[in-house]
Amino acid sequence: MQSNPELPTVAFIGLGVMGFPMSGHLAKAGYPVQVYNRSSDKAQRWAEQYSGTVCATPRAAAQDAQCVFTCVGNDDDLRAVLLGEQGALAGLEEGAVVVDHSTVSVEVCEELAELCQQRKASFVDAPISGGQQGAENGVLTVMCGGSQTALTKATAAIDCYASAVTHLGPVGSGQRCKMVNQICIAGLLQGLAEGLNFAQRAGLDPAQVVDVISRGAAQSWQMENRAATMLADHYEHGFAVDWMVKDLGIAQAEAARNGSQLPVVETVATYYQELQKRGGGRWDTSSLLRLLQTEQ
User: Fold this and answer.
1) Catalytic positions, please?
2) Which end of the chain is more exposed for a tag (fewer CB within 10 A), N or C?
3) How many CA atoms lie within 13 A of 136 on its CB side?
């Protein structure tokens, strides 16, 4: 698999369950890809599967790259790969664009956007939705904040792993949109968990119930993609509870600033925290059903 010399060099930092396939789509599309991951063994596995250059530091990955993509866990992780002597910003080219696909706070986005501007570069906050399946299939939804000019520079590359890329406003707008996404998912999953638990206790065939109601107003992505695994009590996949606790905390902090009321989120967040206490931090977020099934 050879890169296309006519395409610009890109960097991808963070090869987790999302970043690994996302950067792979870039390589398959012919982009010269320079990757960095905190655990080098995963970067080596990526290089065995795709064509690209494994770099020892984020700074090395960012050198000569027109676009630097990041996909890491939280605010501190993002600062760790972008800042400092070996951080990506130290190797950033003038005119380059940093596109962050992590789910982080608005504050860290604004902080990093200012630092990029000082280096005559740009920053786009671009959190994603669609889960591991969406990343592997290249059909993610990307919510973007920053200048339209900066986003335009990166759009062709993002299109390699996304089915929808939307500019929502200035830096921070993408993260605020992702907060709305997580707020809605939390309510949907709790509703689905309660409905399936009710069906089971009512003596109905829950799979048949899902088949019926998924053709009507109750239908949702969560129902289509998670009901069957929930009924099978299978949660070793998907978006982890630990990450949802983090994401809902970000949304709650932002709500405190803008005066929003999030009573459902506050309740569901406590359920996820209970799952963490039971050792379910890495379970899929649909594991809310387990709590209801264990209640007598």
Assistant:
1) 178
2) C
3) 6
Using CA atoms, how far apart are residues 65 and 12, in angstroms rounded to an integer? 10
Domains of the chain: 10-170 (3.40.50.720), 176-294 (1.10.1040.10)
Tokens in use for 242? Answer: 């630990």
**How many C-beta atoms lie closer than 10 Å to residue 162's C-beta?**
23
Q: What is the pLDDT along the chain (296 residues), one digit of tens a residue?
A: 567 778 999 999 999 999 999 999 999 999 999 999 999 999 999 999 999 999 999 999 999 999 999 999 999 999 999 999 999 999 999 999 999 999 999 999 999 999 999 999 999 999 999 988 899 999 999 999 999 999 999 999 999 999 999 999 999 999 999 999 999 999 999 999 999 999 999 999 999 999 999 999 999 999 999 999 999 999 999 899 999 999 999 999 999 999 999 999 999 999 999 999 999 999 999 999 999 998 75
Token readout for 156 is 């062709």
**Token code pair at residue 251:** 């949304």
